[in-house]
Predict the structure of D-alanine--D-alanine ligase.
Amino acid sequence: MNAQFGKVGVLCGGRSAEREVSLMSGNGVCEALRSKQVDAHLFDTGLHSIAELIDQKFDRVFIALHGRYGEDGTLQGLLELLGVPYTGSGPMASSIAIDKIMTKKVWLQAGLMTPGFAEIVSEDQLEKAVSKLGLPMMLKAPNEGSTLGVVKVTKPSELSAAYREASQYDKVVLAEQFVKGKEITVAIIGSGEQAKTLPPIQIVAPEGNYDYQNKYFTDVTQYFCPAPIADNVSEHIGALALRAYHALGCEGWARADFMLDEQDRPWLIEINTAPGMTGHSLVPMAAKAVGMSYPELCVEILETARCKVGSPHVIVKPIQSMTA
């Protein structure tokens, strides 16, 4: 048994709309770590309580949760309080990155190019968004992943239905300028100056529809790794991915998604701080392109696990009674 990591919890499942994908990721990661002699244990946060998590006495955890209550900073804050090292970004970076609107605001402040957008809280604001962004336009649930709550609107008659689809997940809907071109994703591993990018992947989905079904449950989507783009464009996208990663304060690992327009200009779309690790997932695909197996990738990510907010070993002295 690999004693380097101690007892490792692979946190998966959860209560988000991405629960099914998270279970697939968690099972894959746990099996891979065990193949490397790591004492890994699955822990479904959707079925088990915080008290049960504490009782497990994990030495570190691999977060294979996606979406709310796993990728949004809430779990990361809990693990900081418990002093349990964990993979991925800290509470603040996680909470910003899961919110596509806040992510865009940070990136724009950092001088990074992302499609124009508007925040929509009612159907009455849709026409104003169209005037600003034009059609086609994307409507998105800003705090969901796996393309849940993402709808492309091509004509005014589709606006209401698209808004209802996106707003069932979030009160605020992101209206985003549509960028025609190639869909590119870049994986990042590491923290600070040691962070590195893996080869970019181009995603070609049927009719450009890279939805939940085509992501995880069909084999019709095509992936090209490394992406068939010019070397200078690939290098530029990799540099932008690192800038986007650092601008949000991300650590450990993540995946940045781009649209490469018809003039070969890359537009940042979003960043995932706990990417999928299923049989269809993109980070393992990019790792394989540089000769890194799935189990090796899992171990490398696990090696980055740590607490991010101060020391977990501070001794808190009880407050003395004022009447003493």
Summary: Residues 312-324 have pLDDT under 50 and may be disordered. The longest helix spans residues 19-35. The domain at 96-113+180-303 is CATH 3.30.470.20 (D-amino Acid Aminotransferase; Chain A, domain 1). The radius of gyration is 20 Å.
